Amino acid sequence: MRVLMIHTDTFHYHVTDKTSVTKLSKPLTDTNESQDLGDCLVAFIASEKVDESNIDSVIEQGIATIDDHCGKINEKTIMVYPYAHLSSDLSKPRIAQKVLDGVYAGLDKLGKYTMAQAPFGWYKSFKVECKGHPLSENARTILPEGKAKKGVKIENKAVAAEAKMAKVYKILDLDHNLVDEKDFNFKDHKEFKKLVDYDLRGTRAADEAPAHLKLMREHELVDYEPGSDAGNLRWYPKGQLIKRLLETHCNRMIHEYGGMQVETPIMYDFEHPKLAKYLNRFPARQYVVQSEDKDYFLRFAACFGQYLMSHDMHISYKSLPLRLYELTHYSFRREQTGELSGLKRLRTFTMPDMHTLCRDIEQSKEEFIRQFELSIRWMKDLDFDFHICFRFVEDFFEENKDFIYRMQDIVGKPFLIELWKERFFYFVTKFEFNILDSANKASTLSTVQIDVENTELFDINYIDEKSEKHHMPMLHTSIAGAIDRNLHALLEKQAMLMKKGTKATWPLWLAPTQVRFIPVSEKYIEAAEKLMEDVSYRVDIDDRDLSLGKRIRGAEKEWVPYIVVIGENEKESGKLTVRVRGGGKKQESWTPSELNDVIKPLVEGKPYERLALPVQLSRRPIFVG
User: Fold this and answer.
1) What is the pLDDT of residues 573-601, one digit of tens each?
2) 3-class secondary structure per residue, 142-206
3) What's this model's pTM, rounded to 2 decimal places?
4) Cβ atoms of residues 354 and 451 within 8 Å
5) CA 408 to the chain's CA centroid
6) Rounded to whole angstroms, how far apart are CA atoms 253 and 261?
7) 153, 183, 213: which is the final residue of a domain?
8) Over the stretch 314-360, which tens digit does the pLDDT of each residue have?
9) Domain carrying residue 371
10) Residue closest to 130 by CA, chosen among 3, 5, 9
11) Phi, psi at residue 395, to the nearest 5°?
12) Separation between Cα atoms, residue 219 and residue 223, nearest integer Å
């Protein structure tokens, strides 16, 4: 913020053009269209780009600066005047208006000044007579706290407050005892110890490239996009298939559970009164886009659209619990550059997001447990070894111990417990299912929160048996976490297995190629293609002009679960010679029908889609050179 303070004998302004109205022009009145003042301090103010990083800070400093100067010159009348000409690096108009209004309101609240303010967004002429004493002219540059003159890092209140919260960490052992970390026996929980160390003392910033970065390119799944912002990736056909299968499986689970799938916009108005309040209660960094003369932020979850939708709904107590669900293909968080890490932490990601409206806390707890079990099912379907962290407001934990004991008995794992002395965020508890990567850093997948604030903030209510309205608790749920991060977890798990000398494998239902046919020579391509027709799963054929050994090694490198070699015996008998990845025997001999019978129970209940690539490997492009 730039402030030019002029101590005047007289000051006059008037609006010169009443036709040039914009959406940000403050309404004109009889009192603000023109004003004449005698002795006063005129504070000419320009809001700068750097102010956007912490508006409250510059407002508070601006109030203190003007108040201090008025004390030095013994002036009791202040004119706040918007004056963009003080800077060549101006903030957005909406920010400037907030700064000016904030400074005016703060000085007025002191109760010792006669206040005046010139209207924002109009062309005005003014006349000023400066007193001419040593303090009659004074200029100041005000920067947000902690900011240098170069570089802007946008944060909100919640981001800063998250690090300052008073918190205590404990471990809930399998006997339901809440103990200090030093008193817990980690002998049989060595991986859990890594989660505890990371959560209490770790950092998100990566010291070295995660193992999955190499694998995601080697397998032609996903890659960086140099033509976009960091943290926005390009997905190749194999990776897009896996992502789509994960999305479909998640959708089915939520539909079976009773989630009603909806779709909402990806951008929202910064100036929407309820959304603005919510932004300061959620620790995320936003992308900002401009449309006409307004600023919008790109959503970082489906919360905004589902809140506004729920506000407009007519909800009876008979409809509760009510579950709205969206698979947000585009969610945005402008994470810090040092925290971006392949598929683990992105700026654009896919998030399955459900909000469950409940009648009261008791119903919320029952839904919470059901969603806890649903999340366990997801983790098992992907064969993840996961570790659990619960975060509680201390009072809620003390009043609901049986609630958490029930969940621990369901899963049979120790919990890392974080206790807060007071509630800063909108929720009283949440759980996180975490996986560990090859660098012993944790990533959160499944998570559920009990929100006790936002239905009131957004005026979401239900009608009870007496036709009376009530606000209610709401659960925020992602049974899978970000879909992209699940692929990260899959690849990191296999990287750790390979490091131990174990063959990497896909969960069979997610393998891009489930069965690969390899004819021993060109002579047997036709026979292989004929036998392939009777296999019901994702099958392709390596018909390239390479040696048999190279093609088998290529299939092994792609983690293909079933490799079928076709030669004269197979052509004549119709029996398939099958190498089973990770199988006990070197190879099996099955008919196509028998191979189908082997695969069927291993993928039952999981979605299936064809691979959107040519069946013949000789016709496939190379995506990653």
Assistant:
1) 999 999 999 876 678 999 999 999 999 99
2) CCCCCCCCCCCCCCCHHHHHHCCCCEEEEEECCCCCEECHHHCCCCCCHHHHHHHHHHHHCCCCC
3) 0.76
4) no
5) 27
6) 12
7) 153
8) 999 999 999 999 999 999 988 877 778 889 989 999 999 999 999 99
9) 163-203+242-491
10) 9
11) -60, -40
12) 10
